[in-house]
């Protein structure tokens, strides 16, 4: 109550803020968002979530920068998946049907749902190994006729 009265009377003390550290500019740089793998799963999740969407927490996979989006802590048994070597990680990640599972230094898991490559292409993490595969659309005779009619 006393503080409110001091403000209302115009007598509250004013302490100028220092200029140093007064901006978030340094935090928003991509080079400052690299994932340090020597942390518990909760810290990894918070790092990825904290940099989601800008600038995006990233790591190196197969020699290229890959940005992680959409993380959550995974408190379940280890899911089935295909191993993916991640630079700096103590153990490989797992590409599963739900996304990419990565491990903290405490052995706990984090699930990452989306990945973005250096060229800007974003894919669901579960499709990492099938990202380069393309399937041709095959139409039945009836669908071919319908497509021709539409043309």
From TrEMBL:
Domain Formyl transferase C-terminal residues, every copy: 29-130
Gene Ontology MF annotations: catalytic activity
InterPro entries per record: Formyl_trans_C (IPR005793), Formyl_trans_C_sf (IPR037022), Formyl_transferase-like_C_sf (IPR011034)
Any Pfam family: Formyl_trans_C
Name this protein carries in UniProt: AL1L2 dehydrogenase
């Amino acid at each position: 109550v006393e503080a409110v009265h001091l403000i209302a009377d115009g007598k509250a003390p004013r302490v100028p803020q220092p200029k140093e550290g007064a901006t978030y500019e340094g935090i928003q740089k991509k080079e400052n968002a690299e994932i340090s793998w020597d942390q518990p799963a909760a810290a990894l999740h918070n790092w990825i979530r904290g940099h989601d969407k800008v600038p995006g927490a990233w790591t190196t996979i197969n020699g290229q920068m890959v940005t992680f989006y959409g993380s959550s802590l995974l408190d379940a048994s280890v899911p089935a998946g295909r191993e993916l070597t991640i630079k700096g990680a103590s153990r490989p990640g797992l590409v599963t049907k739900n996304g990419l599972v990565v491990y903290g230094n405490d052995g706990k898991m984090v699930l990452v749902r989306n990945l973005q490559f250096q060229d800007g292409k974003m894919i669901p993490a579960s499709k990492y190994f099938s990202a380069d595969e393309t399937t041709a659309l095959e139409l039945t005779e009836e669908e071919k006729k319908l497509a021709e009619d539409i043309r």
